[in-house]
Amino acid sequence: MADELKTTIPQDLRHLRACLLCSLVKSFEQFEFFGCDNCEEYLGMKNNREMVYDCTSNNFDGKCIGIYAISVSGRLPPGIVRELKNRGVIYRSRDRSSNI
């Protein structure tokens, strides 16, 4: 259980990023070393620095229990959105910046 929390909950509040698909908030290093707890099967961020940059954003608003962002600025690249759709995953952008 302690090891599981170490991969999910950020140890410090610097360099945090939010997954553009599920809004999970982790450090850049946590996404790179462990991937996204919810989306790894689809996004493949583990050990892939480029995918971490493409599939996460450092611009997000708010956090809630479980360390999820309320709003995440940015969108997944079109190729990833097409691949998600082909696999039956519906992508809903969590970018609320244009609604303000």
TrEMBL record:
One GO cellular component term, please give it.
DSIF complex
Asked if the Swiss-Prot or TrEMBL record annotates the protein with the keyword Transcription, the reply is: yes
Nucleus as a keyword? yes
Q: Domain of life, per the record?
A: Eukaryota
Q: What is its main location?
A: nucleus
InterPro entries assigned? RPABC4/Spt4, Spt4, Spt4/RpoE2_Znf, Spt4_sf
- Protein name stated in the entry: Transcription elongation factor SPT4-like protein
Q: What is the lineage of its organism?
A: Eukaryota, Metazoa, Ecdysozoa, Arthropoda, Chelicerata
Which Pfam families does this one have?
Answer: Spt4
